[in-house]
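User: Before I run my own analysis I want an independent prediction to cross-check against. Here's the chain; please return only the C-alpha cells and, at the end, one sentence I can use as a sanity check.
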Amino acid sequence: MKIIDKTLLQDAKGDISFTARVQGTLKYGLNWYGEMEAQKVVIGQLERLLEKGFVLIRNFTLPNSEIVIPIILIGAGGIWVVYVTKEKGHFEAKGDQWNTIDTNGKAVPASINFIDRVSKLATVFQRYLKIQKFEIPNPVEPVLLAADPGAQIESVRPAVRVVRSDAIKQFATSLLQARPVWRTDFVQEIAERIVNPRPPKELEPMVPAPAPEQVSSRAGALSQVDEQGNSFKADDLGFAFDESESQATPNSQIQQRSVGPRPAPAGKQPPLKRAPAKKKFLGLGNTQIILLAVISIIGCCIVIGFAYYISLNL
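Assistant: C-alpha cells:
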C-alpha cells in the first residue's frame, strides 16, 4: 500500500515536536495530537493488511480551506474516508447519533458526534471530487474507526460504517474483497489528481476505465451533490467543524447540517445550507482560547514561583 502523508507540523521523520504539538492543539483542538498518534497505529495495521493496489492519503487539506480529511483510502473497489478516534469507554452508534453509555446503562449524547463529523467529511470530499470532475461510479463511503481497544461500541444501524480496533483486520478484508469498479492501475492516477488538483482551465472529466466485473453504480445522495462552480471554494461547502460540536441537536437541524445515507428524490434535492459564521477572538475558537489561558496561567505561576525562590536565597 502506498502512503501519501500530508500531515502538517511534523518533521521529516513523521515526529511532532513539543512546539508543533502546542501549535496544532491551539489550531485544531485538544484531541488533535492524540488523534495523530492513533492514526499512526491504524495506518501501521492497514499497511500490513492491504495490498499494493491501495493508496492511503493522510491528513489532506482541501484547497482554499482549513478542512482536513484525516484518511482517504483508494482501492479498486472505491474510495473511503476514514476518521480515527482515540476515545475509549462505552459508546452507542445509533443511526446518525453517537452516544456515551453511563454507569447506569443510559445512552447520553457525546460532546462530539463523530458519526456526524465523518459523514460531513465524506460529503465535502465527494463535492471536491465532483468539482475536480471525477466520474466515480460509487459515492465515497464514510468510516468511523476506534483505535483504542478500550472503546466498546454497540452499533444499532449506524449511518456510517463503524469499526472497532479488534475488527480492523475484518475491515481490511472487506476492502480487499470489494467488487472492483475500476482497474487497479487507475488508483494511482486518482491519488495523483487528488493531491495535485488542476486549475479550472485545465480540468477535463476523469472517467475511470471500467473493471472487468464492474457492477452497476449505486444511487446515493452523496453522488448527486450539485457542482457549485469550476473551482473549489470552502465557503460553498456549507459545513462547520468545531471541537465543541455536540450531537444534542434537534432532528430538524441535523437534517439541515448533514447528508444521510438515503438519496434525495431526483430533481428535488435541497441545496446545502451554509453554516453560520462563528465570531472568533484573534481567529481562535473557544477551546483554543481556554487552552491558551491555561498555558498562560501555568507560565505565570512558574515565573512567580521562581522569583519567590530567588528572593528566599538572597
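Sanity check: The first strand starts at residue 2 and ends at 5.
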